[in-house]
Amino acid sequence: MALISGVPEPKIMEVKRKEITEPIRESIARRGNRPRLFSRVVTVAVEALEFLIASVLFKKPREVPKQTEQTEAEHPEYVAENSTAAVKTTKEEKAEPEQPKMTRLASKYPKLFKVNKELEDQNGAIQQKQKQLSAKKKELSEVTGWFKGRKKKELQKEIDELKSQIRDMKDYLPRIVQKIGYRSVQEFLKDFKASQTEYSQYRTAIEKWKKETGKEPVAHGIRAKLAEKKQEIQNEQKNKQHTHSQNKDRGAR
Question: In terms of pTM, does the model score above 0.85?
Answer without folding.
Answer: no
